[in-house]
Amino acid sequence: MKAQSQITAHYPVLLVENVGETAAFYETHFGFTRQFDADWYVHMAREDDGKTHQMAIMRFDHDTIPEPGRRPTQGLIVNVEVSDVDAVHARMQAAGVTMLQPLRSEKFGQRHFIAADPNDVLVDVITPIPFDPEWLAGQGM
What residue stretches are annotated with the VOC domain (predicted)? Predict the structure, then answer.
């Protein structure tokens, strides 16, 4: 087996129409800060307990994107795992963020809600909870 190069970072890049508005959404609601800020690309990061979380926002029609990929992001869910989903839900709802799925607890070990960012990209905000034992048994686990 060939030696592989070390992965030094792994993060999503959302292709959007309005870079500034989208970056502001993730700053306001999830505490990301801009590490690089241009009108066509914003690289964002957040530090938590020694872990760096990163994402980027890019203008969908920028000339560095190959022609077949020059369209806004669709069919993607951005999962954001937080320590207190109820508090995040309350803040985002009070701010008028579009809620697509109400806050609820799932048998498969998540308390979550799904919101839309300014480009209608789905943002699933999650706090892990215990699995339902009956559900687990039904899954053969």
Answer: 8-128
Strands (E), the chain: 13-16, 33-37, 41-48, 51-59, 77-81, 99-106, 110-116, 122-128
pLDDT higher than 70, residue 1: no
Q: Assess contact for 82 and 126: CB atoms under 8 A.
A: yes
User: What's at 3, amino acid-wise?
Assistant: A
1-73: CATH topology is: 3.30.720
User: Where are the domains positioned within the chain?
Assistant: 1-73, 74-140
- Answer yes or no: is pLDDT of 140 > 90: no
Cβ–Cβ < 8 Å for 116, 100: yes
- By C-alpha distance, which of 61, 10, 11, 12 is closest to 40? 61
The token duo for 109 is 């070990």
31: left (phi over 0), alpha (psi -120 to 50) or beta: left
Structure confidence by residue, pLDDT tens digits, 75-104: 999 999 999 999 999 999 999 999 999 999
What fold does the segment set 74-140 form as a domain?
Answer: 3.30.720
